[in-house]
Queue: 2 jobs
Job 1
Amino acid sequence: MLKLLSWHSPILQTRTQNLNLSHLAPPLLLLCSSLCIKHSSTISDDIYDPPFSHTSKPSKSKSPIKALASEKEQNLPVHSDLPFDFRYSYSETNPSIQPIGFREPPRFSPFGPGRLDRKWTGTSAPAEQFADASEVFKEQNSVLGDPLTEEEIEELVERYRHNDCSRQINIGKGGVTHNMLDDIHNHWKRAEAVRIKCLGVPTLDMDNICFHLEVDKTGGKVIYRHINILLLYRGRNYDPKNRPVIPLMLWNPYPPIYPRLVKNVADGLTFEETKEMRNRGLNSPPLMKLTRNGVYVNVVQRVREAFKTEEVVRLECTYVDTSDCKKIGVKLRDLVPCVPILFKDGQIILWRGKKNGEQDSTS
């Protein structure tokens, strides 16, 4: 204690000289002197006074992730030269069908306010300029390079086709989504191909999945296809540094409201005939039992074969979501083709429609 007081003795003498403390009691005098010592320590400029000198806290530098995020914020809005309209799902939407309403205002863009230089219409963010199809095709071919030999294809298939492959992307009921395109290019940074596993509603039309993956959206090539497993090759001349700019959607937009899929009276039938068809379908044995997130690659062919002998077909979808049942009905209507006449208690009732001979006889 004496040693500490000796450090501040000059300052203490100058402070106490200006004060007349002779009339104070010794305890109070000691308190005043201690306060003077404490106050002098806060303003001391002595570099040899480490216990009482004020040390300022070092300024925290921004983390690399926050610094990168701030740099990206400065470059908004993002511009992308991709020639197609940005949608949440490419394989499970039909641009030709216009919605009759929206569940949220179209001004709420899923890309975030001011983050994209395209306007959100409620269903898509249209491209400003339509690119020439021949130029896009030439650019894709230049990236793909020379076709792979059979030995190279076998090597890639053996490397990426197994279930324990780390380069895998799962496609669920949303189909080929917009953010999935960015995931594919992220895998292509370090791998020549990516394994894609499809489940649920998209497996009804695997040709549509392949079209949006290789021809229309990514520029890659499907070199292997087995039931619901695809292998998408990036190309010989693929350069990760020149990958396209894909702005990410920050949330899943609410789907718009479309016209009713099932009408009260089916086209070509009366009300009584429609009611009789529905009852017949509910009392008939199920053609197939569909599971949740199953593989439906053979459903279309089975329904087509059943319509050769039956007029009404029932699909049992007890454990399938209601929204998925309606998506299945829409795809079967376009692929078989047929007429969905009832969705009830996890049951899909399909009517094959009137044949040409029946239409001629009724007319």
Job 2
Amino acid sequence: MDVGDGEFLEEGIDDLEVVYLEDLEEVVFNEDGEDLIQQQAVDLARLTFSKHSTSVFTGAFNKNGSLVVTGGEDDMAYVWSTENAEILFECTGHKDSVTEAGFNFNDQFVATGDMSGLIQVWNVQQKKLVWCYEGDDMEWLIWHHMANVLISGSASGDIYIWQIPQGNCKVLPSHGTSTLCGKILLDGKRLLAGYSDGQVRLWDLKSGEMLWQLTSNIPVKAVTSLDITGDAYLCVVAPSAQLFKVADGTQTASYLTTDETEVEVVAFNSESGMLATGAISGKLCVWDYKKNNLRHETKLDTSITTIKWGLNDRMFVGCTDSCIYVCDARSGTLVEVLTGHNANILSLSLTNDCSSVLSTSDDATAKIFVIKND
């Protein structure tokens, strides 16, 4: 994707052009003022998985959408069928809440990780444990998108890189503070990591060399999440909503509205050149990061916990009111509200073809909804 000629980088951060489109809140109510969400407070999910006994923190589809892995506060993870919610196998042995779970690049393995630092890898076809590691308290866990390589960030700040299932390990050393998030660049050769002291570092995965760290405009608060454009030109971090060049860490903009001090979640839509930010206050913004303007904003009467992009500029917004708001980010309108949960939405995941969305919740369930992409 072409990020453009870089003109927006030359504009001052204070010179954001604000373009207000239709407020999403206006379509939450019908002509009689009756709450549309209450009207639709029925279970719209195609399938519900209810084997967890308490909050389900994480969930992910495999590549063809036939299987899901979920992990929860009950120290359990399950791999189950998206056809009928039948359990393929249980990922037992965890000692704390399972907060990370996902399939590798070819669906041969599934990894599950708990907060205490126990990470396990299972052979999906054989339904058996093939590798495990127990170390520092785990903060995040991701698979490499092109190889059987598993990467985990720890509370100590060390980042571990393993070959699976051999277990060969490399460590990207800590600078004395926890690493809270990490993302592999599309080229598969570099990793961007955020830390609890506001530091952001870019690492070379092969050599283990740190390519750069922020030396100016370091976020005041811990970097709890980050995202990268598809062309690896820009990265954005939360909660500060600061944008940096991936090449050298130079700050280019900060996307906070005047009445917000931080955001909960950030997510790029590289195809459309848009960036979504969501806050605990309920403020939802969509920015055009190429032109450096705010396309639209709205204030939901709930806290935003997660945002995922789908096809046709559809944006899926998970909230603490148990609803998933499906928005058309280009026009700024609410397309539909996916209801069925009765507690906080904790995670969202989409199938590769964006035909279904998986949600997990504090209500001890995971649900699959069919997406209308017309």
